[in-house]
Amino acid sequence: MVSAISALWLLLAAAFLAALLLELLQAPRAGLGARLFQDLIRYGKTKSGCGQRPAWLRLLDVPKRWFSHFYILSVVWNSFLLLLLIQALFLSRPFPVWLQNLLSALGGASQNQDVGDKHLSVLLVLMLLLLHSFQRLIECLYISVFSSGVLHILQYCMGLGYYIVIGLTVLCQVPANVSNGKDLFMQICWYHILGIMMYIWASVHQHRCHVILANLRKGKSGKVVSLNHSIPFGDWFERVSCPHYFAELLIYVSMAVIFGFQNLTWWLVVMFVLFNQALAAVLCHEFYVNKFSCYPTHRKAFIPFLF
After folding, report:
1. Does position 222 have pLDDT exceeding 70, yes or no?
2. 18-32, 183-197, 259-273, 291-305: which has the minimum mean pLDDT?
3. Which residues contact 163 (CB under 8 A, 6 or more apart)?
4. Which of 155, 161, 162, 181 lies 20 to 30 Å from 71 when distance is taken between CA atoms?
5. What is d(CA 255, CA 49) in angstroms, rounded to the nearest whole number?
6. Which pLDDT score is estimated for 86?
7. Three-state DSSP class for 292?
8. pLDDT of residue 57
């Protein structure tokens, strides 16, 4: 039987796949429903594709710079979950009852299975998820240069919810009453090493791409001189319009590798990230192509050479 958490990720992935297909098929944009759809899938610079937005829709906007809130929440929440997991594994302190009940409700039958050989995978993934959120928080606060771009309040709320649920998804991969981390690091396998290397590789390139985007708005002194959009060059930008989105996908694939390639729930998370980031990349690519007549024609939107 499919667990509640797996069903949730499957539903979200299907929803974003449907949105991506509608955008690729260039569904009609006239009418209230179509305008609401466009407003919900676009944010930042791609909001310009919505045309003239009515005043009541603009009331639902929040600043794009609030992206940092996602990562603040993720760092705090997932640090808390990591602390509880470490205490359970190494100090034999069970999860709080409320968390055990929540994980049992979300994970279903998987919470009763003996997965002792997966404890290390769960620990590593939760640590990397926390590290990724910390990196993105630092980039948002000290590197990225935000303009007056906005996102819909529902997008903002979904972002907050995402970082709460993703940590719970990781913990759902071990029993709610997990304990005994003795000889934990004897479980290390080749796929743990491969996954960590892939994570580092993707994270380095994502950071480089965020620096490139930020530098488009900075002078040689490092101070912001413009909030206009320009064509980015360098690193993976030579192949795709949104390499930072592609790197995000690779980061989540690296975590699937750490789970030993066989965790169905996490592959559903990867599918959600794939369709979510692909949709954002398609809209970004459309913005660049429409704004810059000299935009490189060989660049794909999201995945080098493919899409």
Report:
1. yes
2. 18-32
3. 70, 71, 73, 74, 77, 78, 133
4. 181
5. 34
6. 94
7. coil
8. 85
Structural domain includes residue 182: yes
The terminus-to-terminus CA distance of the chain in angstroms comes to: 34
Helix (H, G, I), strand (E, B) or coil at 51: coil
Question: Rounded to two decimals, what is the model's pTM?
Answer: 0.94
Residues 6+ apart with CB under 8 A from 46: 280, 283, 284, 286, 287
Give the confidence band of 190 by pLDDT, cuts at 50, 70, 90: very high
Residue 296 maps to a domain: no
Rounded CA separation 231/275 (Å): 24
Burial of 170 (0-12, 13-18, 19+ CB in 10 A): buried
Confidence check: pLDDT of 143 > 90: yes
The two tokens of residue 213 are 């985007």
User: At residue 17, does pLDDT exceed 60?
Assistant: yes
Closest CA to 41 of 291, 249, 234, 278: 278
Domain assignment present for 298: no
| 302 located within any domain | no
**Residue 43, SS3?**
coil
> What pLDDT, on a 0 to 100 scale, did the predictor assign at position 33?
82
Residue 180 has pLDDT above 80, yes or no: no
Q: What's the rounded Cα separation, in Å, for the pair 244 and 306?
A: 16
Tell me the residue range of the domain where 282 lies.
4-291
Q: Which residues pair with 62 in a beta bridge?
A: 151
Q: What is the enclosing helix (H) or strand (E) of 199? A: helix 190-215
Q: Name the burial class of residue 233, with classes exposed (0-12), middle (13-18) and buried (19+) by CB atoms within 10 angstroms of its CB.
A: exposed
| Residues comprising the chain, all counted | 307
- The Cα–Cα gap between 222 and 219 comes to 5
| Structural domains in the chain (count) | 1
- Sorted by sequence, the CB contacts under 8 Å of residue 263 that are 6+ apart come out as 121, 173, 256
**Averaged pLDDT for residues 152-166:** 96
